Amino acid sequence: MNRKQKKNLIRIIVASAMMIGFLFIPVSGIWRLMLFLVPYLIVGYDILIKAAKGVKNLQPFDECFLMAIATIGAMIVAVIGDSDYYEAVAVMLFYQIGEWFQGYAIGKSRRNISDLMDIRPDYANLETDGQIEKVDPDEVEIGSVIVVRAGEKIPLDGVIIEGQSTLNTSALTGESLPRDVRVGDDVISGCINLSGLLRVRTTKEFEESTASKILDLVENASSKKSRSEHFISRFARVYTPVVVFSALALAVLPPLIRMLAGMDALWGMWIYRALTFLVISCPCALVISIPLSFFAGIGGASREGVLVKGSDYLERLSKTRTVVFDKTGTLTKGVFEVTAVHPEEIDEKTLLHLAAHVERHSSHPIAASLKAAYPGEADDCEITGVEEIPGQGARATVNGRVVCVGNEKMMRTVGASIRKCSHHHTGTVVHISRDGKYLGHIEISDVVKPGAENAIRSLHRSGVKHTVMLTGDSQRVAVHVADELGVDEVHADLLPEDKVSELEKLLEHRKPSEVVAFVGDGINDAPVLSRADIGIAMGAMGSDAAIEAADIVLMDDDPVKIAKAIRISRKCMRIVKENIWFSIGIKVLCLILGALGFANMWVAIFADVGVMVIAVLNAIRALFVKNL
Fold this sequence. Notes:
Among the domains are: about 90 residues, Calcium-transporting ATPase, cytoplasmic transduction domain A; about 110 residues, Calcium-transporting ATPase, cytoplasmic domain N (3-Layer(aba) Sandwich). By secondary structure, it is α+β, with helices and mostly antiparallel strands. The radius of gyration is 34 Å and the shape is elongated. About 50% of the residues lie in helices and about 20% in strands. Helix 2 packs across helix 4 and helix 14 runs parallel beside helix 19. The protein has 20 helices and 22 strands.
């Protein structure tokens, strides 16, 4: 609870105690009015000031104006009718209780988000000429070396050049399991170093770092308003003046009609009904609970490592019926790995051994995968005459014998006869020969992410009707991955502009009420992410361009989170609709009862404050999404 909330709570308690105490003091007339004005002004002076400012700025029609008119009017009616003043004080008092509760609820949801997103580093340990200086992260340049001790946050993105440790990434990714890191691993700002000391060479300035971008996304999320929020804003602008003039008509027209009919006008009764009507009509529940529902929904998604850039995107996500995926880096790891070894006349280990020797000095991704599969290739073997042959592969002399590693064209060039393999190939095949004799082949593939198949199943269970994969990879590989994961439709051999064209076709054939989402990670995915109804980017390994173009960012690159994000958005929209219908329904009912004289000020207080409290409590439910 902040200082302002504590101050308001004290005002409420003091005013409540005074109002209750004054009920038992046997004073009447002007002195009783003066007594009740004290708690009234203590609890309501700020509302009266806001109402006066609204009138001064020619923007009077808000809840403060309604409360001021209703309570001052109730005081006047009490003076004229020689009744008590506690109803006027009670209306202001309960309104302030509702406002305090709403402020506390919003503060709590903000604290929950800020606790989870408490990733802004306070300082960086900059190493210069062997000396460590504590500086502001903004002052650290790209390529600098920083030291991160156990228990400290990593202040900037970079690469580990010394040390190994375990990182807590939960604030960024929602992943509770710590991540082990060592020399050569990329680390991102906002993670907490749990154990060893690390020396990190920075790769980004603070403004471009992961932590800074995430904070910017969360802080600016409220600027992207949803259609529901725009509806409520337009509704309040029209609704408030309508009810003010309706209350005025209720106070004036019935008495005038009665006077013309020769009956007692009953001005006091009709003015009281009009004031009750004003209190009931206050649109606080709608104006407060709808933005709070979206704010809580965005906060709940952030806890799970899903960053939504605005409530508009959260609302659109709830209508998603088609999800389109890029393949490499999205459904697959984007890293080549040896997936099969098929030797001829020699064993698997020897075949990998020879291939790794020939590819020892190559920087090609295929060479990297071969070296990773046989990390012990730096042995006592004599390697000479290493040569890369463009479009074919590489060759070298290993212990005096010529070993060739490459494609079928290379094997034909050296006269090695490839034996037809009975295995079904879905990746790149690398053939190996020694002195012109065929030794076998190794299959290298882009490996499917462990959670990709579950992600597709979860999407179908979540109500997504159609899943599509767009990739620049070959048709054979794309179809194999799609079949393995259960993707409904696949388009392969696509250039970036072809992906946009395929997405355009899907957008043309969808229903107007349905949304098409695209999920990608590469810089070439940015045009498609921008064109889709909803763009979802991989945040951990995704390119900056993809993250900037996307509407939603998955901080741990786990495609399973897409289905969870959709479920979060649908829960949020259910809560928004519940609050809209509940608030409007109760308001309309109580307004009718108030106009007909069946509802007094206490019913009005429930219709205003009670409905607001219930709606706010319901809105807070959007923050709790752990078990969705």
